């Protein structure tokens, strides 16, 4: 399951695949969770962009760290999944 937000061209799409609350959320810049993205028609998929994970914060606005005791959930990110690490390019020194 991943979170998606609307691309700039989403307003042009007459959507009948999501409920009215999800559509309003997308049009207001929010994101929605989609469990089976591949089952959507291509005409809908081209208007959705995968949302980047956001860092979790506490009530004071400080960043929350990950709990090393829970290996399956990353508490440092909203939704519990951290972004994939970028591959390092080995170059000449």
In short:
The protein has 93 residues and is α+β, with helices and mostly antiparallel strands. The protein has 2 helices and 3 strands.
Tally of structural domains: 2
Which strand order do you get reading across the main beta sheet?
Answer: 2-1-3
Helix and strand succession? EHEHE
What is the helical fraction, as a range of percent? 10-25%
Describe this structure in words.
The structure is a single chain. With 93 residues, the chain is of the alpha+beta class. It folds into 2 domains: 2-50, no CATH class; 54-82, no CATH class. It is 13% helix and 13% strand. The protein has helices at 20-27, 42-45; strands spanning 2-6, 31-34, 48-50. The chain has a 3-stranded antiparallel sheet, with helices on one face.
């Amino acid at each position: 399951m991943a979170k998606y937000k609307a691309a700039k061209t989403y307003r042009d799409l007459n959507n009948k695949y999501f409920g009215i609350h999800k559509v309003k959320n997308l049009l207001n810049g929010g994101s929605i969770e989609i469990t089976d993205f591949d089952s959507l028609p291509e005409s809908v998929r081209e208007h959705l962009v995968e949302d980047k994970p956001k860092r979790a914060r506490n009530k004071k606005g400080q960043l929350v760290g990950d709990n090393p005791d829970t290996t399956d959930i990353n508490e440092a990110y909203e939704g519990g999944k951290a972004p994939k690490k970028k591959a390092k390019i080995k170059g000449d020194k």
